[in-house]
């Protein structure tokens, strides 16, 4: 464990030290704040950040992820069970990622106003794709030989689905989910930047108009922390649910 922690910790420490030295040499904190000034600003703004803006962003991330997981798994299962549905939906799912989300976000603000749902829709559009595509690929990766063996032994379709296809799809699903949880933070921040009344992205944009560099970076640090923690949670769930993979 320690061998895997030390290299990135050393690299991060070197990066922060270099950043601190550069910021002090430039001495323009409104453009390039130092890590120590950002930490001080986090402490000064702890009440509005942690009590008002952080819960608003977390609500967007959690709701958007839950919707993406439910709809993404449902769509992937539907496509895996019906080739005609796959032919109809798969190109549309791929094409949806060709549209810049930041261009659609203002439209969602027009539709839903400054409510939470304009930000949730942006988050869903960003996180839906990796969950759906990875889960679908996992469902299609089941062993054909095992499938034929189970059929010859009298297995029903639901037996094959739950005992062969679902276990085959779980590693792919978690791979997509690890990508989705990090993208969910980006989606929430984009939505808040373009139209919100609260949230870490909204707060960062507001501080930018005041030329307060440290206050701009402070919510960005929290957003990064949320993404890292969500990734670690998914990784922990993956290790708990896929113990069998370690013994292969």
UniProtKB/TrEMBL annotation:
PANTHER family: ABC TRANSPORTER PERMEASE PROTEIN HI_0355-RELATED (PTHR30151:SF20), ALKANE SULFONATE ABC TRANSPORTER-RELATED, MEMBRANE SUBUNIT (PTHR30151). It comes from Bacillus thermotolerans (Quasibacillus thermotolerans). Residues 54-234 form the ABC transmembrane type-1 domain. One of its GO terms (cellular component) is plasma membrane. This is Hydroxymethylpyrimidine ABC transporter, transmembrane component. The keyword Cell inner membrane does not apply. It is found in: Cell membrane. It is a multi-pass membrane protein. It comes from the Bacteria. Belongs to the binding-protein-dependent transport system permease family. The lineage of its organism: Bacteria, Bacillati, Bacillota, Bacilli, Bacillales. GO terms for biological process: transmembrane transport. The chain crosses the membrane at residues 56-81, 88-114, 120-139, 183-203, 215-237. Keywords: Cell membrane, Membrane, Transmembrane, Transmembrane helix, Transport.
């Amino acid at each position: 464990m320690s061998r895997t922690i030390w290299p990135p910790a050393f690299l991060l420490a070197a990066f922060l030290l270099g950043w601190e030295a550069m910021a002090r040499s430039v001495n323009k904190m409104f453009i390039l704040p130092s890590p120590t000034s950002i930490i001080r600003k986090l402490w000064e703004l702890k009440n509005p950040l942690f009590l008002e803006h952080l819960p608003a962003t977390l609500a967007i991330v959690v709701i958007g992820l839950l919707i993406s997981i439910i709809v993404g798994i449902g769509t992937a299962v539907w496509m895996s069970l019906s080739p005609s549905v796959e032919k109809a939906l798969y190109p549309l799912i791929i094409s949806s990622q060709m549209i810049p989300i930041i261009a659609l976000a203002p439209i969602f603000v027009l539709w839903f106003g400054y409510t939470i749902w304009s930000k949730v829709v942006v988050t869903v559009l960003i996180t839906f794709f990796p969950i759906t595509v990875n889960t679908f690929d996992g469902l299609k990766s089941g062993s054909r030989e095992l499938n034929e063996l189970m059929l010859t032994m009298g297995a029903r379709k639901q037996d094959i689905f739950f005992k062969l296809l679902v276990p085959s799809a779980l590693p792919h699903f978690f791979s997509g989910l690890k990508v989705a949880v990090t993208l969910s933070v980006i989606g929430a921040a984009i939505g808040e930047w373009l139209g919100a009344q609260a949230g870490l992205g909204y707060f960062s944009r507001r501080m930018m108009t005041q030329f307060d560099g440290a206050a701009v970076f402070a919510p960005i640090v929290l957003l990064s922390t949320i993404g890292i923690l969500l990734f670690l949670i998914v990784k922990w769930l993956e290790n708990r649910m896929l113990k069998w993979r370690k013994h292969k």
